[in-house]
Write a structure and sequence with these properties.
By secondary structure, this protein is an alpha+beta fold. It has two domains: about 100 residues, Alpha-Beta Plaits (2-Layer Sandwich); about 90 residues, 2-Layer Sandwich (Alpha-Beta Plaits). The chain has four helices and eight strands; from the N terminus they run αβαββαββαβββ. It has an eight-stranded antiparallel barrel with strand order 1-3-2-8-5-7-6-4. Helix 2 packs antiparallel against helix 3. The longest helix is centred in the N-terminal third of the chain and has 21 residues. The protein is globular and about 50 Å long.
């Protein structure tokens, strides 16, 4: 199993950072510098870097996800020496952004059918926005929908600290067509153009 697969199997929470750059070329160059600085820091200290993965949507949003074992893990700062290396890069990165924010996603194991997050030929990020009175009905209907899927792996999250949406990574080697629950949720599907392990 890959590091990411192991993390996926274990991590109930994920820190999610979402960037929407104005200048994608500059952003991607700085992002490579940022990730290189992290890898070099952990290699120099003979430590395994924390697993993470990124994906990019067709609309130009960049998602960075890192697994967390508990909510308490969000309070643990990165080492000061690492922050010293990455802070100037982050400052330059912010100049390339139209907007950015962070969320916390909670893994929904019951709705997750994938055993690992591996690049597939097709990928979609689905966001379902559900009015609170319909949560119970929505969950029952979504469980049935996921159960009935063939050839599509699902990684399911709930945006615990974010916009309160249900998030699904839909992964397949064939074109993805998954029906929506129109009477229970407002659904937004966005094509994912890249997925990478950092």
């Amino acid at each position: 199993m890959t590091l990411l697969a192991i993390a996926l199997a274990l991590a109930p929470y994920w820190s999610v950072h979402i960037d929407f750059p104005v200048d994608r070329v500059a952003f991607e160059g700085l992002d490579r510098q940022f990730n290189t600085a992290i890898r070099e820091f952990y290699a120099a200290n003979q430590l395994e870097p924390p697993p993470s993965f990124t994906f990019v949507t067709a609309g130009g949003h960049y998602y960075g996800l890192r697994p967390r074992a508990s909510l308490a893990d969000f309070d643990k700062p990165s080492p000061p020496e690492l922050r010293t290396k990455t802070a100037p890069i982050s400052e330059e990165t912010h100049k390339t952004l139209r907007e950015h924010h962070s969320e916390i996603w909670h893994l929904d194991r019951e709705m997750t059918t994938a055993t690992e997050l591996a690049p597939r030929r097709y990928a979609i990020l689905r966001s379902d926005f559900v009015p609170p009175p319909k949560d119970g009905e929505y969950n029952a209907a979504m469980k049935q929908l996921v159960h009935d899927l063939a050839g599509v792996d699902v990684i399911a999250f709930f945006s615990t600290y974010g916009n309160g949406s249900y998030r699904y990574l839909l992964l397949s080697d064939a074109p993805i067509k998954v029906r929506t629950l129109k009477k229970l949720a407002e659904t937004r599907d966005v094509v994912i153009t890249e997925i990478a392990l950092q």
